[in-house]
Amino acid sequence: xxxxxxxxxxxxxxxxxxxxxxxxxxxxxxxxxxxxxxxxxxxxxxxxxxxxxxxxxxxxxxxxxxxxxxxx
Length: 72
Description:
Elements: E1 2-4, E2 10-12, H1 28-35, H2 46-65
Antiparallel strand pairs: 1-2
């Protein structure tokens, strides 16, 4: 649900709630990385947040490729 600020711009009423739930892959380390992404109003921090999540996903995929790695 949205409202309008004094300039007529649409603004979210509840900025604490995520717009959409994090995807669930069934691979817990990847799901945890995706749940941990926080994109706030400061777009200058988005690159670092997404980069960190990508690093975690890549690490989880690398770990899963190792022989003898447990499957989730």
